[in-house]
Amino acid sequence: MTTQIAHARKLCLSLLTITAACVSALPASAQQTSGKSFVDDFDKINRGFWYVSDGWNNGAHQNCTWSKNQVKVEDGALQLSFADGKSKDRNYLCGEIQTTKRYSYGTYEARIKAGTGSGLNSAFFTYIGPADKQKHDEIDFEVLGKNTGEVQVNQYVQAKGDNEKLVPVGSKADEGFNDYAFIWEKDRLRYYLNGKLVQDVTDPSKIPSNPQKIFFSLWGSDTLSNWMGRFDYTKPAVLSVDRVAFTALGDKCQFPESIACTLN
């Protein structure tokens, strides 16, 4: 994926699509609070911990509007859905949540079942940018609807990307849950898939440094077909998140399967 496309696709926090709604979405005090280690099994959505995106889109490339109605907890998992539904100038609705706090070096983990459908993007990522008066830094896991047998890892440093790598999942990411994790340190960034190291970045110039918020999103595009596949909506899709965790460097691991346990 080109840097131009990557800049376009991110939530309205990106350089090209900042809106007043995004800038004012979170109180300044919440935006600047540093996050501590946590585990969320999504028995419910803690609205003080998570901000639910609602009422805007990321730009012309995104064919859906973020809607709070596409975000719920069901059967012990977070459910972000993509469905037909008119909102403003879009014919589809989609779901996204982001933490109210920022997080820095440590282990980030999520157990996810991706959404099904060509032209969709199921994403677990961290991000900070101009709406927070910071440079664009980002760390990504993205399952692209055209081939759910792979997941793309990538990172941005001060809005510079071009670090994409496609990693085989070993099955279909939309047919069952998989464990996605990355360990972010000052001089090293490691990506893991189902406990296996799949990407090891040691060039400091390619490692973000700014604390970031944690995001989950499911969205679609009519125009990014080369990257995400030709959009072909047939029925609603759902991205399910069974668990998410952050373990700060130096803290004890928080559940037995955690990658952070291997660091102790």
Automatic annotation (TrEMBL):
It comes from Rhizobium tibeticum. Belongs to the glycosyl hydrolase 16 family. GO terms for biological process: carbohydrate metabolic process. One of its GO terms (molecular function) is hydrolase activity, hydrolyzing O-glycosyl compounds. Residues 21-252 form the GH16 domain. The active site is at 138 (proton donor), 142 (proton donor). The keyword Nucleus does not apply. Residues 1-30 form the signal peptide. Keywords: Glycosidase, Hydrolase, Signal. The keyword NADP does not apply. InterPro entries: Beta-glucanase-like, Beta-glucanase/XTH, Beta_glucanase, ConA-like_dom_sf, GH16_AS. This is Beta-glucanase.
